[in-house]
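Subgroup meeting minutes
Present: P.N., E.W., G.H.
Scribe: E.W.

1. P.N. recapped why we're keeping a running log of single-chain structure predictions: easier to compare across weeks, and new members can see raw inputs and outputs side by side.
2. G.H. added today's entry (681 aa).
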Amino acid sequence: MALTFLPPPRGAVGTLPSRRSKRKTKPPPELAVGQSVRMLNSTATAGLIDRTAEAAKAAWNRGSTERFPDRLDPSLWYSEGTSTNQFLFGAYRGPLLLEERTLTTSFSGSPGSDSSSDFTIEELTVPPRPDVEKRVQKLLGQRKIREAAEIVREESAPARCGNMVLDALSKANMLAEAEKTFDAMSDRDVASYTIIISVCGRLRKTDAAMKHFNRMLEEGVRPNAFAYSVLVEALGKMGLANDAEALFRKMSDNGISPNVVAYNALMKAYVKAGRLRQALKLESEMRIKGTRPDIVTYGTLINACSKLREVDRAFSYFARMREEGIEPNRVCYASLIDACSKSVKLNSAFQVLQEMRKNQIRPDLYAFNTLIDACGRARMSDRAFDCYYNLLESGLQPDTVTFNALISACGRSRDINGAFKALNLMIDEFGYSPDLHTYNTLIDACSKAKDASRAMEVYRRLKAENVQPCAVTYNALIDAWGRAGRTDMAMKLLQNLEDDAVVPDCYTLNTLVHAFCRVGDMSRAFELISYFDTKFRVVPDQVTYNTIIEALKKAERYDEAWDMFDQMIQSGLQPTKVSYNSMACGCLRALDAHGATKLFETYLVYGADIELDVTTYSAIIECCIRGCQLRSAVDVFYKMNREMVQKLTHLGRSLVTELRRQGDDVTADNLAWQFSNQSRG
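Output recorded in log:
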């Protein structure tokens, strides 16, 4: 293999003295691997090589574009038939000099000796052209990413140059081009791997991201905290929170301290997987390890509080963020509005909006859409439309999400005319075509307004416009006819669902079961449960059991209600607050004090994550008092928190009175003392 070295431009400024030759420059030699070149070994020569090597390294480290001498003293070098100085200045053509390594390491003589020595060119690599980086930067500035990538692939570019192109390809989501460029790069560092892993993760190519991470380890490139972080985030986006957590812990095991980016990535993974409490606990771990939360951390924490419907805690994080000198951005404000929305704190949501404006942060479309949703949850369609008009006055243009939120707000408010008004605004004023979500939301609005006929009109319009209905569509339609007591139409829609090759889900089952429970046809409800299990492999969930239990309670079929309650636990499902409420009220109706005691004992075993409400506690205690199970009633009182005791003052006094009437003054006095202390607290 022969390689030709071109001389550097004339007049380039070097770091060593130069002497121009008046004679014509001969063509540069062709040098091949294994070719021997003879040189004089003198102190001056050795010193020149050493000084030039150091100058080359220093120039490259500081990004210098200076050239090395285009003429060196020909008395120092010679080769057969050609001026060796031409080889030298050809080799030292740019700042990064691979040939410099060959010259210095292959030199076999001793500095200061007068003897001549041979050296062999063991490996020659054409050094990168000094203008590669400038050319790449220019092309990227012109948004010619593919052309820049082609240069990196075809020329020996340094990692820094290749990473610029990888980053541009990553931001353009050009994964195939990025991987092609990455594979062609001769110089890859940890930043290169981080970029390619990041784009794979963003495009949900988790397997590819893992492949590149393992390849990095195999090639001896040590990952840093950022490399781990992008992979943790990639795993989190796919809902693989366990894998993300394992990788995060492995980072510490490998001696790399997680930074705030890594903590944020794991926190997002927890939120994505619904492990919201763990996300909140991670913030405490950050502080213990000395990692200070940033704006992304707080935005994620507020989002977690929103999903938990813990609006007070969300405001607490918001206040702490400002105390630490971190100014909230639009995302933080919008997440706080969403927390208010989910907790139905409409006034608080509007106060957050006012604070945004006060701090000169212009609300964006997401903030307004969230406010409209908040109005819907509060069943205030008029205020939802006020938000819509406020949005227009702010110079923003609504999108389909805006109109879907408006329709949903009207549905929750039972304002069917407002829902169709929003639909007309969407089509006539802005020219948007309703999508499947729009139609589903409109059918649901008709269902909530108990207007099954209009729901069917929307369904026919959907079919006429060749929009393919889904399970949500049919669920809303079945619910509309179920509310109207038309179980025959509900079953007909189930047949239509199957004809359209739509797979029903558990919500479909629950909607049908609820429809038959409304009309008291329990046998058909049980048949549907068996049918869905056999044909669709859809099994009952907690909502199914709660619906059946409530219907059996209303029908005073208490033994069957207990059977369903026990069956729910045996199937591995935890009873919910609704389950305990229905069963407690059933026990009170039947004056089943033993059943009430059994229910509370079950709650102590299975209800660690549930806080019973005042209705459930009241029913259990009253049932025990009326059924002369006073000891059980006392036990329930001792288990209640202070707030619940204060709400049940009247029952506490009744229990104390009944204990004294039964002659149990000691228990009555103890209970009265504890009851008095908690009430004062």
